[in-house]
Amino acid sequence: MGAAGSRELNPSAAGAANNVECHYPTSRPKVVLPPSSPRLRAAHLGAPPKRWGGACSRALTIHGSHFPALCQRLTSAASTRCRVALRTGIASRGIMQVFAGSTTMLEQRIQRQFQESAQLKQQAGALLAEPMAQAVACMANALSNGGKILACGNGGSAADAQHFAAELIGRFERERPELAAIALTTDTSILTAIANDYGFEQVFARQVRALGQQGDVLVAISTSGNSPSVVEAVRAAQERDMLVVGMTGKGGGQMTALLRDVDVHLCVPHDRTARIQEVHLLMLHCICDGVDWTLMGDQENTA
């Protein structure tokens, strides 16, 4: 290739005309890679922003600051779409061009997600309106009599528990006095101490026994109804003579048999976790609205 210290991959004369030259700073070797090279096909994700020619016959300049990242990605097999794009010359407008052919399919997939979620919410609304009204009545009664709401869950359900407590203590859609609520998912010192000493299944139960009182309400959230830590929290709440509002899906799991007649079970009629979580969030918003309406009447939103 002429330059001292340079090396060439696939140096055959027949393929030279279709090779892509990658020019590095003078301290680095000059490498010629054929467009069909798996290393080159995987390189695009690590390269700096620069348009490639239609058949990848145009020279590509890669600056030194990008060289380490490029080297890490040269042997990667993760970019199947990019490899196809380079073989067919689609990549002339960068990586987004790779997905141009599948944009319609992606949009249809997104629309199906919205349609499925909307249909499930309509179905759940018709099925669960009555038990949700019961949950509202339980919580409003507890709050009116100096009680509080405890909430727990894992993962996305932990986020829902925190979201719910925040809207009770802060506000939902109208100005009102603070309502007593505690998310049992937030104190890392308590959570890790209990998990370390007693096992993770006790992280909520011990908090319920410490903080819960007769007349309080536990909102126990588990998309499957089988989460050990949530199931143990339900047992602890029942020991403290608290009411339980169980929010589940997938048939309700262990929580179905555990909940008593005085408790409320809001079981989303679906098996997909994402859809169940979406309905759980809507139900929590409905409960917030219902509690505000029960305690404050038909006052308009003043926020």
Explain this structure:
The model is unreliable at 1-33, 37-67, 77-82 and 88-92 (pLDDT under 50). This protein has 2 domains: 7-93, no CATH class; 128-296, Rossmann fold, CATH 3.40.50.10490. The chain has 303 residues and is α/β, with parallel strands linked by helices. The chain contains 11 helices and 9 strands. It has helices at 13-16, 38-41, 67-74, 80-88, 103-144, 156-169, 188-198, 205-211, 228-239, 253-258, 273-296, and strands at 7-8, 20-23, 31-33, 60-61, 149-152, 181-183, 217-221, 243-249, 264-268. The relative contact order is 0.10. The protein starts with 6 loop residues before the first strand and ends in a 7-residue tail after the last helix. Helix 9 links the parallel strand 7 and strand 8. The strands form 2 sheets. It has a 5-stranded parallel beta sheet, sandwiched between helices. Helix 5 (103-144) runs parallel beside helix 11, helix 6 (156-169) packs parallel to helix 11 and helix 8 runs parallel beside helix 9 (228-239).
Q: What is the topological layout?
A:
Layout: E1 7-8, H1 13-16, E2 20-23, E3 31-33, H2 38-41, E4 60-61, H3 67-74, H4 80-88, H5 103-144, E5 149-152, H6 156-169, E6 181-183, H7 188-198, H8 205-211, E7 217-221, H9 228-239, E8 243-249, H10 253-258, E9 264-268, H11 273-296
Parallel strand pairs: 1-3, 2-4, 5-6, 5-7, 7-8, 8-9
Antiparallel strand pairs: 2-3
